Amino acid sequence: MKRMVDASRAEEGCIEYVYAEDVLEPGLIHVKERWNGQAELDRHFASKHIAEWRAAWSGLEISDRNLFVYDVDEPRRT
Questions:
Q1: Cα separation of 28 and 40, whole Å?
Q2: What is the pLDDT, as a whole number, of residue 75?
Q3: Distance of alpha carbon 41 from alpha carbon 23, whole angstroms
Q4: Is residue 12 a contact partner of residue 42, using CB atoms and an 8 Å limit?
Q5: Is 14 in a helix, a strand, or coil?
Q6: What is the DSSP secondary structure assignment for residue 11, as one 8-state letter?
């Protein structure tokens, strides 16, 4: 996971890339990513380290994946 985070953060256009374990459901990992735009996200999905990460899933007991992409203009504090 550290290699994946490091490689993703090094990609052009990556603003934020983090993993966090759910405090109420141990073993459930949340991934938060922010990218400069769709082109950067598309390059990320096509990267070598993503392919290697996906190939390793069975050995890591990753059983499910729910991916949602949101378009957001600018963040603002409330």
A1: 26
A2: 80
A3: 28
A4: no
A5: strand
A6: S
pLDDT per position as a tens digit, 8-38: 999 999 999 999 999 999 988 899 999 999 9
34 HSE (CA, 13 A, CB side): 6
The size of the chain, in residues, is: 78
Tell whether the model's pLDDT for residue 71 goes beyond 90: no
Torsion, Cα of 75, 68, 36, 3 (10° steps)? 110
Q: How confident is the model at residue 61 (pLDDT cuts 50, 70, 90)?
A: confident
10 Å Cβ neighbour count for 77?
A: 3
Give pLDDT, residue 76.
86
* End-to-end alpha carbon distance in the chain: 32
| Calpha distance 37→71 (Å, rounded) | 9
